[in-house]
Amino acid sequence: VLNFYGMSYGTFLGITYANLFPSRVGRIALDSVLDPTAYTGPTPDLMLSSATGIDPTLEGFAAACEAVGPSQCALAEPKGKPCGYVLTKIQSLFDATNETPLVVPNGDDDISVLTGTAIRAYTLVDLSFPRAYPIVAQYLNDMITAKYVADGVGIDDACSPDTYRGMNMEFSVYIANDGDNKGDHMSWEDMLPAIKEQSDAFGIVFAKDAWPALHFKPTPIERYAGPWDKPLKHPLLLLNNEVDPQTPLEWAQNTADLLGDNAVLVTREGFGHSVINLPSKCIQQITINFFNNGTYPEPDTVCKVDTGLFATTTRKLEDSVDAVEAAREGLAALAAQPRRHRSNALGRVHG
């Protein structure tokens, strides 16, 4: 049997394996769940449905920043400002850089040009990880106040080994492989205004990486698109955040409904991508009990988060930056290792 913890794209791998080999399902937990029917359907529809959590995440980030104040969030100001001012500041930055990119120093003798699209894309990535929220607030505030200095290393460079030659196109390839873009569906041209209406700040940025899938010609021989409700040896444990900018809770709920008695859904309150991005004793204990003892929580359990969104700012901001950079270096080192050294009894895959 397979014991497996799949995160993000790894949840699709997990549910596919479970339905291909239902008698070999051991203890499989899926964190930040891809709805398999949406994912294997038309890509324009997929992108539109996946974007529903983006703006609520940004709004939650801004509201939490205002709540903790300037001592913990660089974008916040002393009390007395009207509610919503942080969100207004961020939106104003995005709007201003649409037409006039920021030119900022890069090191001692170079410059970098930050377009509105680049700023939105960087912010969108980091909003998935609440531990990075103090850093997000700091660099957005530095951009607003003309204090930002580029470090010369992009997020993709920091996460990629020296041997990486993928050009960051994997996302387009695997959604083109797994999706169905041959039949009747919303056109790609119609998707763009629809997703922009859904998220004015991030919609187009969110959709642009999917666009190459429109021109992807190969058809995979072994593409699996269901059925998804085969009786399994053991039910799957589904885990999802209440507000996720990449895999909305609705997807996990749809998947739980699709699987019926073959799944148990647990929701974690709060924001971000992956239920382990903030401390939650409830999530921790459920996961330990599941893998160690094979026990399941009550269906539709809701877990609380044990810390606030900006709690990490009780430490120096530099410590937070160091922690994030260390995590990125760890990812790069892991990716660079030969595959045989990375395998273990408890598979863990994330997108």
Automatic annotation (TrEMBL):
InterPro entries assigned to the protein according to its UniProt record, in alphabetical order: AB_hydrolase_fold, Pept_S33_TAP-like_C
Q: Where is the Peptidase S33 tripeptidyl aminopeptidase-like C-terminal domain?
A: 232-303
The lineage's top-level taxon is Eukaryota
One short Pfam name that applies is Abhydrolase_4
What this protein is called in its record is Peptidase S33 tripeptidyl aminopeptidase-like C-terminal domain-containing protein
